[in-house]
Design brief:
about 575 residues; 15-stranded mixed β-sheet; binds magnesium ion; binds adenosine-5'-triphosphate; GMP Synthetase, Chain A, domain 3
């Protein structure tokens, strides 16, 4: 599509990137070497994520290093050193143990980004229990479903959320043993308890029980973009991937200040909003507030953030805002920007380079993969619109499902399903209570991701679309991303969602839903102009034939465009599971 590659001059990097020669790093990489770099539990008692993330640092030179700085939405600031985190998460583990919560038991959290959530996550892992974060904006029914399907025994939440959403569910959830309220001074009943009261008397030292690397650690529900969310099971061994991606993708160095904007209700907010930066012993920023362009730039400036991990939806919102970031804010500390969750339009990568002074590094992964799998690295050429190249230790391929349960490799530049050689440390070990669906994800030694992609001759991977979203029109297979990215090149367009609408002669016609930037109006003239623009860039077979202007696109709470809803609404069909819909 005519975007020039962005090349990096390592000599001008403020710190030297960990990976400078991709091929050499991949060739010399082994997961066993990574395992040796981690501490492991004392006395050979196994591997526990919380020990790698907190306790080993608290017992050593990083004890007084700032681990987390929490920025409250009303201006409060709370700092936690590694020593503080170790002590407070131990208290939480002691609370669980005192309540008889065992290894393998599921501990859910339903809260905004408050400090207690982070302490609960780490304390749960220390106790060998399984942490399952829920997004605080879920309504009662999605919460009930997930607690039931995940066999939740404990729920950590706030008084407000309890009263609004949980109290009404209690008698439908017999296995839910205790609710712990983060901000109640007194217990409400024998099973709804004050967490501060319990924490005040709980022991602040805690010995992590022996933990097998294959013990279940985290349960994450997928985003529900394509249907009913699935519960992906992850084990403690996943920390090897968190560590490796922290080094090679996020390029953490000891003095880094890292900000991951994702909510822990989604896998990014746990793998990278909690675990990876702590495993590297660096400082994380946590902002309690929701997106606000000015606030975000101010945080980057004031906290001197060096590495920033965000999402395409946020980048697109920043692109829309009438702010000149480098004129209004000092972003000089910032060294690397990463994005995940949806395809990152080439326009956005280049906007970063021009407006923030740094290109945005797209990376690809899923709830099921537990960590970043394909990425644009600090020192490697960026081909705008490409997801980048596989992580060292990860074998990725584009395949077609072929007879006898196997797969065959697609050729260079051919579309096919993105597959990963199964068996990396953070690979999900199951969909909870859905063994059959899990089995169906694997064939011929590969995990099949359900995403379509293409690999160019030099080994860069390009996202084509989710298998469910592909449009078949007049003998062509069209990925919505390609069409959306072109529409976004048009100056008035802020966002685009593209679907196929059934049509008897050509199969499907390409239809685009467009959100305009502030100050533009969706007139008939603009609509025709955009149709013409699409044709000139994409050719008439692929260009949208119909264009509709909307005020907003339906999105998941994690910011992904829900094309299946655009389609269901267009066709007057049932909307299916909308538990993760932003405005639900
Ligand atoms: P569900 O599986 O419930 O439909 P989901 O797939 O959106 O929801 P997640 O695991 O949160 O749930 O998202 C992973 C998916 O997001 C990927 O399979 C891919 O479709 C998309 N994705 C993530 N990162 C990228 C990226 N960099 N480029 C393109 N797509 C991406
Ligand atoms: Mg998925």
């Amino acid at each position: 599509m005519g975007w020039n590659p962005i090349r990096k001059d390592v000599a001008v990097f403020p710190v030297s990137p960990h990976m400078q020669d991709y091929e050499a790093t991949c060739a010399g990489f082994s997961w066993e070497d990574v395992r040796r770099e981690l501490a492991g539990l004392p006395g050979g008692a196994g591997l526990n994520i919380a020990h790698e993330a907190v306790d080993r640092h608290a017992a050593g030179a990083l004890r007084d290093r700032l681990a987390m700085r929490w920025l409250g939405k009303n201006g409060a600031v709370r700092d936690f050193t590694y020593g503080d985190l170790a002590r407070e998460s131990s208290r939480f583990a002691s609370v669980l143990k005192g309540l008889g919560i065992a290894q393998g038991d599921r501990v859910f959290a339903l809260a905004g980004r408050i400090p207690e959530l982070y302490l609960a996550a780490l304390g749960t892992l220390k106790n060998g229990s399984v942490f399952c974060p829920l997004f605080s904006a879920f309504g009662p029914e999605p919460i009930r479903q997930r607690l039931e399907r995940g066999d939740g025994r404990v729920l950590v939440t706030t008084v407000r959320l309890y009263e609004k959403k949980i109290a009404q569910l209690l008698n439908t959830l017999p296995q839910l043993n205790r609710v712990l309220l983060t901000d109640a001074a007194e217990d409400l009943s024998d099973s709804v308890l004050s967490l501060p009261r319990l924490m005040a008397t709980a022991a602040s030292d805690f010995t992590i029980p022996p933990t097998d690397p294959e013990d279940m650690a985290l349960l994450h529900f997928t985003s529900g973009t394509t249907g009913m969310p699935k519960g992906a099971v992850h084990v403690h061994d996943a920390v090897l991937t968190h560590f490796t991606t922290g080094r090679y993708v996020l390029d953490f160095h000891p003095d880094d200040i890292f900000w991951c904007t994702a909510d822990p209700g989604w896998v990014t907010g746990t793998s990278y909003g909690i675990i990876a930066p702590l495993v590297h012993g660096i400082t994380s920023i946590i902002d309690e507030a929701d997106f606000d362009a000015e606030r975000w730039y101010r945080i980057l400036e004031k906290q001197r953030v060096t590495v920033w991990y965000t999402a395409p939806t946020a980048v697109r919102m920043l692109m829309r805002a009438a702010i000149e970031p480098r004129r209004q804010f000092d972003l000089s500390a910032l060294r690397l920007i990463h994005s995940v969750g949806e395809p990152l339009n080439p326009e956005a990568v280049v906007w970063g380079a021009q407006t923030l002074g740094l290109p945005i590094h797209d990376n690809w992964w899923q709830t099921e993969t537990g960590g970043i799998m394909i990425a644009n690295y600090a020192a490697l050429e960026i081909r705008p619109g490409s997801m980048g190249r596989p992580l060292p230790g990860i074998e990725a391929a584009v395949v077609r499902r072929g007879g006898e349960g196997g797969v065959e490799l697609a050729g260079t530049d051919e579309d096919g399903e993105l597959a990963l050689r199964s068996g990396w440390p953070s690979m999900f070990r199951g969909y909870l209570h859905d063994e059959e669906r899990y089995r169906k994800c694997f064939a011929g030694g590969w995990y099949l991701t359900g995403d379509l992609a293409r690999r160019d001759r030099d080994g860069w991977f390009w996202f084509v679309g989710r298998a469910d979203d592909i449009i078949k029109t007049a003998g062509h297979m069209v990925g919505p991303f390609e069409v959306e990215s072109v529409l976004m090149e048009y100056p008035a367009v802020a966002e685009a969602g593209v679907i196929g609408v059934p049509e008897p002669i050509i199969g499907e016609i390409v239809k685009a839903f467009i959100v305009l930037k502030d100050g533009f109006e969706g007139t008939e003239a603009l609509r025709l102009e955009l149709i013409g623009f699409g044709r000139s860039k994409l050719g008439s077979a692929v260009a949208p034939k119909e264009i509709v202007f909307l005020d907003t696109l339906p999105k998941t709470r994690s910011g992904k465009i829900m094309r299946r809803l655009l389609k269901a609404r267009e066709l007057g069909l049932p909307e299916g599971d909308t538990s993760t819909l932003e405005s639900a």
